[in-house]
Amino acid sequence: MPTPESAATAAELRTAMGKLTRRVKHEDRIPLGQIAVLGVLDRDGAMTTSDLAADQRVRPQSMARVVGLLMEQGLITRRAHPTDGRKSLAELTDAGRAALEAERGRRAGWLAQAIEAELTDEEQAVLARSAVLLERLATH
User: Fold this and answer.
1) Helix residue ranges, H only, 2-120
2) What's the rounded Cα separation, in Å, for the pair 89 and 46?
3) What is the DSSP letter of 86?
4) Beta-bridge mates of residue 92
5) Residue 85 in contact with residue 48, Cβ under 8 Å?
6) Alpha carbon distance 5, 38 (integer Å)
7) I need a labelling partner for 51 at 20 to 30 A (CA). Which of 16, 78, 85, 98 fits?
8) Which H or E run contains 80?
9) Bridging pattern class, strands 76-80 and 88-92
10) How many CB atoms within 10 Å of residue 28?
11) Taking Cα atoms as reference points, which of 89, 92, 94, 97 lies closest to residue 47?
12) Residue 68, Cα to own-chain centre: how many angstroms?
């Protein structure tokens, strides 16, 4: 059973992180579901639609729609699966990689500017140390 102090900290942290996440998402130009697919293709390489759906924990039909939209925008392309002729692999195009990097830059850029504008040097140092703690909590 958590202490009252830990419970209060958890509630405040959850609220603050929710607000920050929503504010960062406000900077997005590409919908979250699409940017997540671009991100996983960037990190893990070409994947089938079924593998993407499993990775993102959505139905294959839903992922097929996302893949279709990204293909229409020229952000991903399909190629034949090297060992299974019934399957195809989705992979990033150069335009997709550029769009992903621009999106990442927008998110990080806004947050970096907010940190510099709103926080003192001492607060920035505390925040930098806190990022490690948040990462530890996220992997618990």
Assistant:
1) 4-26, 32-44, 49-56, 60-72, 94-118
2) 6
3) T
4) 76
5) no
6) 40
7) 98
8) strand 76-80
9) antiparallel
10) 13
11) 89
12) 19
Element (DSSP H or E) covering residue 89: strand 88-92
- Condensed to tens digits (0 to 9), the pLDDT of residues 66-79 reads 999 999 999 999 99
pLDDT tens track, the chain, 140 positions:
889 999 999 999 999 999 998 888 888 889 989 999 999 999 999 999 999 999 999 999 999 999 999 999 999 999 999 999 899 999 999 999 999 999 999 888 889 999 999 999 999 999 999 999 999 998 88
| Under 8 Å between Cβ of 49 and 87 | no
Helix axes 94-118, 4-26, angle to 10 degrees: 130
Structure-token pair, residue 69:
């939209």
- pLDDT at residue 59 in the model: 96
